[in-house]
Amino acid sequence: MEQQLLTAVERWIDEHKEELIADIQAFSRIASVSRADQAAPGAPFGPGCREALNWALNRAKELGFTPVDHEGYCGTARIGDQDNAIGILGHIDVVPEGEGWIYPPYGATRTGDFLIGRGVGDDKGPTLAGLYAARCVKELGLPMKHGVRVYFGCSEETGMQDLQYYVTHDTPPKVSLVPDCGFPVCVAQKGSLSADVSIAAGPSVKAFSAGLVHNMVPADAQAELAVPESDLRAAFAKLGLNDADFTVGPVEGGCLVHAHGIASHAADPGKGKSALNMLADALAKCGLLDDASARTMASIATLTSGCYGESCGLECEDEISGKTTTNFGLASMKDGRVSVSLDARLSIDADPAGCAKRYAAACEALGFSCDSASTTQPFHIGIDSPETVALMDVYREVTGRDDQPYAMGGGTYSRYLSTAISFGPGLPGVTARPDIPESHGGAHRCDEYLYIPSLLTALKIYILSLLRLDEALS
Q1: d(CA 428, CA 443)
Q2: How much of the chain, in percent, has pLDDT values that exceed 70?
Q3: Quick one: which of 42, 148, 292, 295 could link to 202 by a disulfide (CB 3.0–4.6 Å)?
Q4: What is the pLDDT confidence band of residue 236, given thresholds at 50, 70 and 90?
Q5: What is the rounded CA–CA span in Å between residue 74 and residue 62?
Q6: pLDDT at site 436
Q7: What DSSP string describes 145-194?
Q8: d(CA 389, CA 175)
Q9: Cα-flanking dihedrals φ and ψ of residue 100, to 5°?
Q10: Which of 4, 91, 14, 5 is nearest to 456 (CA)?
Q11: Which run of H or of E encompasses 209?
Q12: In this structure, what DSSP letter does residue 216 have?
């Protein structure tokens, strides 16, 4: 790659890095949790996403892009030939903040080389890096035969209805980058199984709930019981349960108990600690519930144990994508029944339809009724495709590393658009982190953070990748 080009790009990044950081902070201070239950005309995912989309489209216009609002489902910022475009697909919705933050969830606090706040890393910061990559190409006058289209999605975290709407109402780019995972190139993503099952709670359980969203290990679970507070405290003490893990308080006619776990992304549930499983297991063993309620809690504890499908008929492993993972992110209670939601990331060798049948059978054996289920197929691209080769070349030239393409359990927009390639911004080998507990930080956790030097390296990779793809696709 020509040194003159590299020097110009590096100078541009240095001149604009503070502006980018300020934009990420402003953008991340908008609480844009996708809420279809709060839909309104022009805002199918609620007011938070509408506000964030307005911000993104207005900022794109200020930077010289042509903004397009796709009825509030998503937005795009465009430059150049749109009949022949390269895309950058980012999402601007975030998961709920949850509890346990040290820093303000929507403060986008800058401390040293870090930004801390919900959305700074997943995915507002990377999305703006994509916008700035296209801006750099435009402002430096770097020749491209293809146009660039930056996409702002509003429901990636809640089912990707935004992208499904978009691909049926517009012509997608020829190829797109998805800045929502790690470098180098993600060549495979697992399939998925989402399902809801329910079971009768029994007389002792008056209320039961857990979690915030289906794709996050639940850090909190609670139950209201027709059991005296003092009796439950004594039973928990006899079981040797840690007071830091459970909080018990009185309510009229019984007690309220909270379990405190550790959140993590559903794609890597082993990094978390499920409060749902903790609570169900403790209640099943406490000896204070009626027989029906105790059996129900034991069934929930069994179903939600483990992270690799061993409790529910979904065990599978292959060389490319590794083990199937399972996360039970949500529980709720209505009309005397407890519902539990599954988010399983299925190994590439697993058959999604067969997995759905095995899961239903395992749940029915535990006394659950299967209320709904849906699956997606895995995604896999060739490591020798022109696009993969071009992106790997840029990554190696910029970083000097020889990391190989990889597979992952996380679900990005690649799952619904076969021409979308997940690419960064996470850099292998980077261990820098702010001074926060090990259980904090990372996507979907409290004190989510962005390491600014890594994002600036990713920005350089994205700029050069646009130019390299422009050549490779000619």
Answers
A1: 16
A2: 100
A3: 292
A4: very high
A5: 18
A6: 97
A7: SSEEEEEEES-GGGT-HHHHHHHHHSPPPSEEEE-SEESSEEEEE-EEEE
A8: 14
A9: 95, 10
A10: 14
A11: strand 205-210
A12: B
Cβ–Cβ < 8 Å for 303, 363 = yes
Per-residue pLDDT at 383 exceeds 90: no
Domain 3-190+379-472 has CATH 3.30.450.40: no
Distance, in Å, from the CA atom of 157 to the CA atom of 175, rounded to the nearest integer, reads: 22
Q: Which two tokens stand for residue 260?
A: 């405190």
Specify the 3-state DSSP secondary structure of 400: coil
Dihedral of alpha carbons 202, 207, 211, 213, sign: positive
Residues 417-474: tens digit of each pLDDT: 888 999 999 999 999 999 999 989 988 999 999 999 999 999 999 999 999 999 999 7
| Length of the chain as a residue count | 474
pLDDT at 414: 86
Q: Hey, where are the domains in the chain?
A: 3-190+379-472, 191-376
Q: What is the pLDDT of residues 182-230, one digit of tens each?
A: 999 999 889 999 999 999 999 999 999 999 988 899 999 999 999 999 9
Look at the domain 191-376 and name its fold.
Alpha-Beta Plaits (3.30.70)
| Residue 43 phi, psi dihedral angles, 5° rounding | -140, 70
**pTM for this prediction:** 0.80
> Residue 409 has what pLDDT?
81
**Tens-place pLDDT, residues 119-136:** 999 999 999 999 999 999
Q: Which two tokens stand for residue 287?
A: 């000896």
One-letter amino acid at 463 equals: I
DSSP SS3 for 436: coil
Residue 70 has pLDDT above 80, yes or no: yes
φ and ψ of 241, to 5 deg: -80, 140
List C-alpha distances in Å: 22 to 26, 52, 231: 6, 15, 53
Short-list 453, 397, 404, CA closest to 425: 453
Distance of CA 101 to the CA centre of its chain: 18
State the Cα–Cα distance between residues 152 and 315, nearest whole angstrom: 35
Tell me which amino acid residue 51 is.
Answer: E
Alpha helices in 204-351 (DSSP H): 229-239, 275-285, 291-303
CB 88 within 8 A of CB 176: yes
CA separation, residue 237 to residues 225, 234, 275, 375 (Å): 17, 5, 18, 42
Average pLDDT over residues 366-376: 95
